[in-house]
Amino acid sequence: MKKKIVLMGSILALAPLAMATNGDNLIGIGPASRGMGGIGTGMPVGPIDSIFRNPAWMSYFNTRKFFLSFGGILFMPSVKVSSKMFMDFNEGSPGGGGYFQTKGRVKSDADTFVVPEVGIVHKVNHRLALGIGAFGVSGMGVDFRDKQLIENPPGHYTNALSKMHTTFQFMRITPAVSYKINEMVSIGGALHIAWGSLDVGAEMCQFGDPDGDGIPSPTKCWNASGGQAQDFGIGISLGIAFNMGDFIYAGLMYQSPISMTYKNVFDSNGDGKFEDMKLQQPQEAAFGIGVKPLENLRLGLDIRWIDWSGADGYGDYDWKDQWVFGIGAEYKPVDNLALRIGWNYGKTPIRNKSNLDPMTPKNSVPNFDAKFSDFQLYWFNLVGFPAIAEQHLTLGLNWKITPNFNVDLSYVYALPKTVTAKAAMDAGEVSAKMVQHSIGVGLNWAF
Question: Which of 40, 183, 341, 383 would be a feasible disulfide site paired with 33, CB 3.0-4.6 Å?
């Protein structure tokens, strides 16, 4: 059977920094939100977090005129992948097939990342607030450059993970405005000026079947990396907030998609020409509620929809939409200390799959020249883009050191999650396991 297919690694188009995420989006931006399960749409958690989560809440904070925050998040992910694929070890002798497979799970070397954040909010008067923030909001990465695949029978060595090393970063500069219509209702909006960076490195191969036994083997390999590519994009967010006597809170937020095209990032078919990759950060809609049953206790719930299936790039890789649930609580045992706890859950957009077609190149990815089989797409998702975290447990605190200075801290633990994809006729299998830890710090001034 003289049918060429492209090796699974041929679809390595992106792979964001492995973070505590809903898909490749952070569960929350600042440590105040992250310490409370990523909430902030339906209840005010802090002036800087409000810029991104729901700008309508910026006009809620009346104790000071000017708020400034610097901070960052230290991510410590652990990504482990196992892979096997049935191939021909001897094209001169029909039937000489076996599995190219990893020896157990292989750990990515990309295991520590830092994401910065800075924000300013100015209360112009009782009703009007202006703000601007710069946040790292999405990203991932893996590094399998020195990870070898061990084949059966023993003695054959190759790199079944295609020497994959990828980095995707996405940041937003977000000027925002909030206006308090009355003591109960506020509205807000923000402009999202986005910057993205994508770097994909992989060794690609085409497969053929010279001896006609139906078992493929590599016939041509090439370095498919086009180097780092960058692009800019524009989006908006709109929000409305309801404050019912500082006892019950509610809010709605909509965030538009942002389209990006990364130029000359990958050579999918080995013709020596680097193709563009179109990738759209998806639209989102969120609703939240909160309650303050005691003067020193606040409870909140956010529900967020993320349109992965409708976003260019993500939808082409068969990502599913997410419904994300965030629950958070804040308790003040004393006036200058707030303790926070939360939980965040969103079913992974990359699902377990079986009986996937390993051969037919029928799936297009914008703007690649090559087409890919169902199994190739899922192989890429789990090796190059393992955005599979689902459940997050969160802790945080705020310590008011002086009347004008306070510190936010957060810790997020993403529970271990494993996703597996299997090809039809036992032609291949790939599995990814991820666990994450992250620590956030915010230094805040109010004047």
Answer: 40
Architecture of domain 5-446: Beta Barrel (2.40)
Beta-bridge partner residues of 395:
341, 411
Sorted by where each begins, the domain ranges of the chain are: 5-446
Confirm if 71 and 30 have CB atoms less than 8 A apart.
yes
Q: Is residue 331 helix, strand or coil?
A: strand
Rounded Cα distance between 280 and 16, Å, is: 14
pLDDT in tens, 99-145: 666 666 888 888 888 888 999 999 999 999 999 999 988 877 888 88
Tokens of 316: 């082409």
Q: CA 196, 257, 347, 326: dihedral to nearest 10 degrees?
A: 100
CB 54 within 8 A of CB 251: yes
CA distance 368 to 361: 13
The pair of structure tokens assigned to 338 is 């707030």
Token pair, residue 50, equals 């409000």
The pTM for the full model equals: 0.90
Dig out the tokens for 277 from the structure.
């990759």
